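ARCHIVE CARD
Drawer: 12
Card no.: 0347
Subject: one protein chain, sequence and derived structure
Cross-reference: see card 0346
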Amino acid sequence: MITESKASAREQIAALSRRDLAIELSYPISLIARAGTIAASIVTFFFIAKIVDPDKLGPYGDRYFEFVLVGLLVGNLTTLGLGSFSKTISDEQSSGTLEVLLAMPMRLATLFVGSLIVPLGFMVVETTIVMLFAIVVLGADFQLGGTLTAFLAVPPTLAFYAAVGAVSAAFVVLSKRGDPFTLLATRLSNFLAGALFPIAVMPGVLRALAKVLPPYYSLEVLRAGMLRGQGVHDVWQELTVLWVVAAASLPVGLWLFGRALRTARRTGTLGSY
């Protein structure tokens, strides 16, 4: 019985993924435009790196280009985690098919995971291409010895942002409006957490605030691995914070989304837009 349940969940996730992939591939101009935007950003920061004072980078050395590439990687995780699930819910709601989708014998967790598969696949491809372009064409230098350290920061970072994305989707269900969280979380990551510049240049109050934000720890671990080649033992405290926050926030996000669904069903507003 358990095996059948698991197989059913896998089939449902596969079906959601096939649908999302077909939709993405039906808009090739959008994919090309996104690739162009990413390339333009990378080249822009490559030239900005040439005028940045390396003394301001402290433990990150004189490599602002590599520093900001790690920040952009976390930015991609932010966009993926925050936007995928809420976009699925918003699109289904605006097309009038949300009630039909949720009426299917599908667990909420299955829908949640299924909405992430295709965006995650595209992000992996985009990140790989960006890093190869940065290394081969623009001469970026990363430490392969810290690959495992950097990799261990990715799942909890994505899980945390996916949890916030579930809260965003709950807001979409109840308000029938676009979510207010994606832009705010992206700005907080870029500005306060130190995605684009080290927090050492900020006033003391903002530095203290930055250390409350999970993306700060994501950036620290990724940079420790990719820029300094450090091992897991060097950043175990930061990794512990990330995994604990992810483990706590994801169930809460899904619970809040479930509550929003029940409220919308009770008030009869689930299918309206």
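Annotation on reverse: The first helix runs from residue 2 to 25. The mean pLDDT is 82.
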